[in-house]
Amino acid sequence: MNVFFQKITELKDESIRSKHEQLVTGIINAINEKIIKKGDKLPSINVMVSEIGFARKTIVKAYEELKNRGIVESKNFKGYYIASANTKSKLKVALLLFAFQSFHEDFYNVLRKSLGKKYQIDIFFHHNNKDVFKNILDTIYGKYGMYVIAPIPSKESPSLIKKFPSEKTLIVDRYIDLPNDYSYISQEFELSTYQKLEALYSGLIKYNKVVLFYRDDSDYPVGIKKGFNKFIKDFNINGVIQKTYKPGDVKLNTLYFFISDTNLWQVLKDCKDLEYTIGKDVGILTHNDNPFKEIILNGITTISADFKKMAQEAATFVKYRATVHKIIPFEIKRKESL
């Protein structure tokens, strides 16, 4: 270990580097020269203070920078270890999403472009499975410089996420209640759904019935269901909630409201087969915009948060780490389907 300390102390006369930069560079040099290797334990903070003479906060800052780059990892109560011998690694970002749906793909692509080449993004999907969500959080903990997490809205999620440092953690997509020092860029569903349905009222009342497809056993936001129920009650709309759609069961003078696209394509196919005109005989309204909905059948009307804007805001947090509490509002894109 004497050679290891020598790699650090030999940089002490380099005035162009700060002390923590000297320490980072010295450890990297030791890895490159194979003085230490993947799996080796680094000296404790106390030992480094004694051997190098730097302040504790300087050593902690250097170890944290190496953690952010994925070179070092910390193990609870066991110290710091070399996690990777790739000393050219970039700052690593763990991105945890529900699934790679079209709007999540938009989010990832904009985040990737906004961060640029200095950042490595590793993407994970929990598919609204609580066990998978917990296992991924356990796997990525302590191994990344930043964490961007779309959480499952459950009672267990806050306690799972609170073990991650607030200054390195951003909640996106779904909101959960966390201490104020945690950042979020999320959607709000109940009031937003109500307000957008209200804004579309003149188009909705052209139809005899409004059907929302909603499954309690899915990852659908419960706020959409609550907002829908409040709207149809307040405006005396003939509205119902159905779990799913049976092929061939499309009805005239009905507006179908989809959260996911699972049933959308079947309804559109049935309308085509029966020669029903979308936007006249049958109305279509969906959550989450994508390019296909802009062009198919002269366009599908959508209520959607701007996931590209959400990703741009997320990239700003990753770069500058300024605490942010922001709700991305829903937008209506009116097309011929309503």
How does this model look, in words?
- This protein has 338 residues and is of the alpha/beta class.
- The protein has three domains: 2-82, Winged helix-like DNA-binding domain superfamily/Winged helix DNA-binding domain (Arc Repressor Mutant, subunit A, Orthogonal Bundle); 91-187 and 307-329, Rossmann fold (3-Layer(aba) Sandwich), CATH 3.40.50.2300; 190-305, Response regulator (Rossmann fold), CATH 3.40.50.
- Helices cover 38% and strands 20% of the residues.
- It contains 13 helices and 14 strands.
- The protein has helices spanning 2-9, 19-32, 45-52, 56-68, 102-115, 130-140, 157-161, 190-199, 201-204, 222-234, 264-273, 291-295, 307-320, and strands spanning 72-75, 79-82, 91-97, 119-125, 146-149, 169-173, 183-186, 209-213, 239-242, 254-258, 282-287, 301-305, 325-327, 330-333.
- The strands form three sheets. The protein has a six-stranded parallel β-sheet.
- The radius of gyration is 26 Å and the shape is elongated.
- The N and C termini lie far apart (72 Å).
